[in-house]
Amino acid sequence: MDTTLNMMLRGASLAMLALIAAALLRDHPRLRSARLGAAFALGVGASILATAPGFMGAPVPAYALAGGLAAGNMVVFWLFTRSLFDDGFSLRAGGDGRARRAAPGARPWARCRCSGPGWRS
Question: Rounded to whole angstroms, how far apart are CA atoms 68 and 106?
């Protein structure tokens, strides 16, 4: 009974997430935050599918695809929240160029200085 209820709730969640993604893409196809929201909903659906009981026995490509989408969903969530709350946010390849301006072999993170209570200088 417990597995049956689990699978029913997972199925309902997958259907609802697919409906949300389809509605976002249908109503706001050009809005960046809507496209990222739809991608986030699909990633959450992949996470629900990848953690379902018995899904480890699925063919390797299916499990790899669902697991990869679920693992990459944290980046999509970060981009989604940035697009919602940062008015100047734009998706572009290469970021702001700081990594390209660094000298070859340099470690930009080595120059990081943390300050504040609890940090040693």
Answer: 30
